[in-house]
Amino acid sequence: MINLRACSALLVLLGFGAASSVDVCSNWMVAPSSCPEFTGATIKGKEDRSSAEILSGINFAGSVSFEWKASNATIALPNATRFTLSLSGHAAPPKGGDVKMAEGAESANIPVMFTSSGGYKTAIFIITDSTGACPTVQHTFKDARTEALPYVFDKGVVLIPFIIVFIIVPLTQNVFFGLGFAAWLCRTIIARDPWIGFLDLFGRALNEEIKGYLGEIMIFMFLLGGVVGGCVRSGGIQGLGEMASAYIKDSFLAMMVTYLLGWAVFCDDYANTVIVGSVVRGVTDKMHLSREKLSFIVDCTSSPIAGLMPLSTWIAYELTLIRDAAASIGYTQETEYIIFISSIGKRFYAWFMLFFVFWNCVLCVDWGPMYVAEKRARAAGDGSGVVNTGDKSIQDWEEDQPIRMKKNIPARWLNAFIPFVCFIGTFLPFLFYAGVQKVTMPVATCEPGCYGDHEITWDSPAKDILANANNFAALRWAAGVTLIVQIVFYAVQYDKTRGSRMKGCLLSPAETIEAQLNGSKLYLEGIVALLLAFTYATAMRDLGIATFFADALGETLTPTTLPTVTFILRSLFALSTGTSWGTMGVFFPIAFALAQTVTKEPINSDAFTSELETTLAAVLGGAIWGDHCSPVSDTTILSAMSSQVPLWDHAKTQLPYAFVVGIYSILFGYLPAGAGAPGALMIIIGFFLIPVLHLGLSKIPNFGGPIEVYCPEVGECIGEGPRGVMNSIKKNFKKSSKSQEAAQEAAQEAAL
């Protein structure tokens, strides 16, 4: 081996300058005097997580790591492409040829595609030296979990459980069986043994879900169920319904109030579905509004509103995803908050669904399964048609509910209003507190300063505090405070005529706690459905569903089609897994990488930023669209649960509406926006075109039509469709005018 001083002296004698001879010799001494040796290899899916299962016919991201070992290789002239990384075995050669490696590098990347499936396959990484000075090095990839050759599945296998769910659930009309069977099927495919799949599902998978993100949701749902139980037992829900009935006179107003409440509870989609559904259910039942329609309005306002609002639990999650995805491609032109705000004007599905719900209420027409449900609700004069009770009467169905109002107590609306206001009023302060405190286990050990590389304090911008917040901790704190308020508030409403000591309380502390426990049972069925849905979703991700959909994008995307294809594939993933947040977490990095690949503009340019905003909006829109179409979605389950309607009845009536709005979003939103149309213009056009589409579908014979506006004051309907809505407005406007005139006359008489 020649040292640097001797090398430089030799080059000076050959005519090189002293400075250049040192540079050339330094380059010579980096790699040619050593040879590469493998230290490891990985294969990752396109969703940027270690793929649990490998699929054939799909390019996976292969990565190898190696060290440079000393050797007796002779010195050759410097050559940056001297070493080549290639593939052998059951792996296809990478498109574009083998990968050239820079000398001195510690790792190299190469796309890996297995050409066959149905067994254990080999992928051999090979490093060759074009000069022949170093020997050829080979490394066979092995599964890190089993230290064996990877088992390769045909890529079509991921669709089997996905399709099975949408066959079994409609046939059996039982989501529990459909989800459980599909989760077992996923585990059976992965294990390639039905017995091992069964053991894995019930022995590990369910437990793992409870220990994770789902556990936080379950605790929150039990706590909020307790709040609802206390409100029901104390007579607050009934009192709220009676009070609202004085102002909500018919089914049209009941729909509009439900819609507006969805906007009022904008802070969180879970809290929105549970609170709005629970509060207005008693009122909508009196107005003979079907619970399918109630759950549709609740479900289709919760996620879109939370996703659009710049102050909600969604922004806390989305800002983190945007920041990490932007960093992965080196994007620095705009902050994550500016990208989020700019994308609001391009979230077409969220806007169009909110418009659709509004016009559905205003026009009072329906079609498809929702039309059947609404006609059933209006047909029963005693109100028993509001829910499909099967063979039971409405009285028997209500008797089966775990919580009812206590006998011989007044129905005061404040007993429900104050707890709900307490929950909503404390949630946002707790959310900001959680953002500064950064909850850990135990709480006493946590300190500010956990958000990225910046210290988070009360002086930090609100967007940074929210991005750092644990939203489920804030929800649980707010629910916990509300439970305590209920215990005290119901106990201090004392009346000696009811009895002495604790018997005189509206509800004694023991009775309130019992009511809260029984209220939690209201959501037990939904929590079990969520557990099965999350288990199924995890199994689908392990099977490689995200990799399959990412590969389906192909290499033919253009800037015009990128938002549309992104929207469709994200919705398919959300449809198959039932989680909008999970969809965003998986596909944000993919979407940013695709925008970088497809868009020919420089990364930190205005043109690229615009394309990035549209693609980001498509990810969020597709996540919500798939969520609304899926019978296994978390918000679908929670909406049915709070509205007290069978899950399948809610899913089948909402699916056609969500599907049509999604198609409309593609044609009049993402396609034009991809071609450069202003997002605001498309949103305005959508507001006026959606009612035309809705009315047109309702005109199809035996498929849709106008719905009667029921008024309990007169005990009959006051019209149907738009005419019924106009009669409702006229009737209530006249009453309001008469009330004002009476008040003015009374004031004049008092003055005299």
Automatic annotation (TrEMBL):
* Signal peptide (from-to): 1-19
| UniProt keyword list | Cell membrane, Membrane, Signal, Transmembrane, Transmembrane helix
Q: Please tell me where this protein is predominantly located.
A: membrane
- The residue ranges of the Na+/H+ antiporter NhaC-like C-terminal domain are 306-424, 519-670
Where is the protein localized? Cell membrane
> What do the Gene Ontology cellular component annotations say?
plasma membrane
Gene source species: Polarella glacialis
Instruction: Give the top-rank taxon of the lineage listed in the UniProt record for this protein.
Output: Eukaryota
Protein name, entry field: Na+/H+ antiporter NhaC-like C-terminal domain-containing protein
> How is this protein situated with respect to the membrane?
Multi-pass membrane protein
Query: Which segments cross the bilayer?
Result: 212-232, 244-266, 348-368, 413-434, 474-492, 522-539, 572-595, 655-673, 679-697
